[in-house]
Amino acid sequence: MLDAFAALMDWHNLVLLLVGTGLGIVIGAIPGLTASMLIALTLPLTFHMDPVNAVTLLIGEYVGGISGGLITAILLRMPGTPASIVTTFDGYPMAQSNRAERALALGIMASVVGGIISWGFLAGMSPALARFALKFGPWEYFTLVLMALVMLAVLAQGSLVKGLLAAALGMAFALPGIDSSIGQARLTFGSSAMLSGFGLLPVLIGAFAISQVLRDAAQPISNKKIEIPKRRLPVHLSDARTHGPNMVRSSLIGTWIGLLPGIGGNIAALVSYSTAKQLSKEPDRFGTGHEPGVVAGESANNAAIGGALIPLITMGIPGSVTEAILIGALTIHNLQPGPLLFQNAPEIAYGIIAAYLLANLFMLIMMWGAVRYIAQLVRLPRAGLLSVILVFCVVGSYAVNSSFVDVWVMIAFGVIGLGLEAARVPLGPFVIGFVLSPIAEEQLRASLMLSDGNALEIFQRPYALLFLALAVLTVAWPAILQRIARRRRVST
Amino acid sequence: MKFSSLTAGVRAGLAILALGAGLGAVGPVATGAAIAQEFPQKPIQIIVPFKPGGRTDVVARLLAEKIQQNGWLSQPMAVMNADGGAGANAVNQMRRGGDDGHTIVHWHHQALIAMAMGLGDFSLDDFKSIGYTGGGSPVWVVRADSEFDTFEQLVAHLKAEPRSLVEAVGIGTIPHFVGAMLANEAGFETRYVTANSGADRLRLILGGNADIALFAASEYLAQAEGLKPLIYFGRERLPDLPDVPTAIELGYDVSWANPNWWLAPADTPDAAIEALQGALEKAIADPEIVEYFTGNTLEPYWTPGDEAMADAQKQLEALQAVAATIQ
Amino acid sequence: MHRKHLKYWGDIALAVLVFGGAAVLLIGAAELPPPRFEPLGSAAVPRGLAAILIVLGLWVAVRAVLGMRADAPVASPEGTASHPLRSLGVLAALIAYVAALDLGQLPFLPMTALFLAASGTILSGGGWRPALVYGALGLALAGALSFIFSNFLYIEIG
């Protein structure tokens, strides 16, 4: 391990890591462009690199890209990745009430803490954790995602029925395409373009970025000069006390959910956000620019990267598209990730671990140094900013699959998003419902295949039961709190 | 006052756009006329119907780069990923690109499965086959602590207790079809659990949630002790797996050699196809490419277009027979 | 229609759209094959979702009707949108831009410059000066993007 760090200290690696992290932050921050896109596009450049160099560059891009997403999520309410959707809930209201720097600074701190905590697990107990995560089968996946879906309902701000409606509509839009459980077309109505279904990125960019641009376009241009804070960054030592427990808890949730291949940072952020909300003494303030909301989401989504790297390097199991590309980068150099990687190419296995930590530190330094300037982004001439964002959205959603269908889908979801917001149907549950329901359905049907149609088999699965219980508890929690409060009042 | 300036703004903006559309429409007419001299005239676009990072993508990129490096074609080749819709997206991109040979597809026999399943609106008639540049065969594995050491034991168990073992497959994907061909031939039946990627199959089998799964030989080799291979689907044994019998050896007429298949639109001129074939044939013989192939348990070989098409036709019929049993 | 009823009419429109969506799901589900590998099959989730959508849509609609009866005063949801025409203009420009790239297969560089000029002009309220400034910005942006994409990443846009 120390050797790996020593090897990374080679200036070549450091420069690549720095470049990768920096590029990742910039790309992650641009609405419409994402980390996985960046990694996919730079993959060919790594062909001629030494494998350690290739991996450091890609890890830097990965960490930078997920972290950069918080910038636009907070400043413009345009999450760069699904993992940052939760950050918009409280980050954007904070920025609106002139606390943009504070929100950014907290988000960065939370990201780094999440990264470092999950790095501890990655470096310290990878094999044991990976073996544990592998025990999770379809029943566990299904109940976990179900729990996340139930939490969505609790998260819904404002009207409960509109929140539920948003989630159900999102789930409905995820249906067309090839039914992954039987490999046949569903709800495509004979169109071959519909076989791919609605892509995640076009839907995300459309519902958040495009609809936000269109909404902003209708706002009057304010001539009021916003005061640029000149003081030091608004983070204090006391924040460690107020936000520390939340950061640690969210990072643990993030690492742990990240461990499960295919689940990913968005569920991690969602679960830790709603946990923070439920455990909070002031749950009503979540969604109105409450600091713990930003902290919970950002710790968890960064921690999920470290978690996801665990099955990747110990078993060769990628948790996301981004990681599948990392594996591709290794196979080009005739390296197969798997248990043998630590024996055959320890410099790679430990190199990934070391690079992950360093990338987090680089991310901290770069974003910290830049945060005050980044926050000025919102003060740029709006006509230019919004127009440029639109171009990036078009290019970004085209580049994923080189398909204009995706661009049209993006525009359509921009209009849908605008309509939903006008009808006070929240966008967060809409997009998260869209992301989660295909996993839930596939895993439920896989469970039933596994048990030969016997749904009662769930009772032989302790972890699945645990998630089910947590889901029920999530629904019942507000009522329980009320009862406790009433009892207290009676007794005093 | 305010209102009028606003509408003026919108009107001015739209006027600019209309002007642009008018100007632009004049543009591309010139380029369409002058084709059919030397091939290639412009960079060649290789459409890969998958996300980046997989085998098909990597092979396409490696060969494209080798060809460019050595100047075997006068223009560079660029890989474009068009994932989605079981290849439907890629085929749409190919049609959009035109049939002058500058837009080609690098795929594998998943294309045939999509046709057998009736997905998408394409068939073999839509393509002209450029050729195969090597390929690889998978292995069927069980967990290392499984009670079965040979394929015969597994079949005997499944015949005694049908559907007692779980096979991790994505319904309608290669592992499903290969497994089903073997099951039809050997006369057994397994239970399925959905696993649409290699990662899912690995996760389920290593975690004990499935008993059998199909992997590329290189994927198995990287796992070392966790898995036990029972049967190999190549025509001959793989040098990296000298002790694993092939299905043919065991008396089952099942083989699956998933090739790297280069395709062009059906009406592509033969001159262009020949130029591409020449370049690809040289590339697959290059020592660096051969090293990548053998390092990833793939076989480097060249099968020219017609031969490849005839093979694909035969394979498609076999797949259609399997598809009929599952739909 | 009273202005303060706008929200309720909006909700009723939403409910109608939701019923439409549920109908599409049900029609699509009717064509799906019966369950084959497990008891749920392809059609179960679309049907279930359609049922949920209908229930939620009814809930929204009933609440809106009751609210209107009660004549509860409600703030207009679109209180701050003072330039709705600009949104429409930008949307039209965006659609024209993508149509030019997709259907027209026109070159990326000039189209992006024109789009930026159009959208910038609309957003800043008109005038030829912003058109020129944003056009130039668009040219630079498109140049940089297509340079990066075609030289380093071998992707042709458009």
From TrEMBL, chain A:
Q: The DUF112 domain covers which part of the protein?
A: 14-432
Please tell me whether the keyword Transmembrane is annotated for this protein: yes
Bilayer-spanning residue ranges: 14-43, 55-76, 103-122, 142-175, 187-210, 253-273, 308-328, 348-371, 383-400, 463-481
Q: Write out the entry's keywords from A to Z.
A: Membrane, Transmembrane, Transmembrane helix
List, alphabetically, the Pfam families matched. TctA (PF01970)
* Coiled-coil residue spans: none
Q: State the protein's name.
A: DUF112 domain-containing protein
Automatic annotation (TrEMBL), chain C:
Which residues are listed as membrane-spanning? 12-32, 44-62, 83-100, 131-155
Alphabetical UniProt keywords? Membrane, Transmembrane, Transmembrane helix
Say which domain of life the source belongs to.
Answer: Bacteria
Its name, as the record gives it, is DUF1468 domain-containing protein
Q: Does the keyword Hydrolase apply?
A: no
- In this chain the DUF1468 domain maps to 12-155
What Pfam families is this protein classified in?
TctB (PF07331)
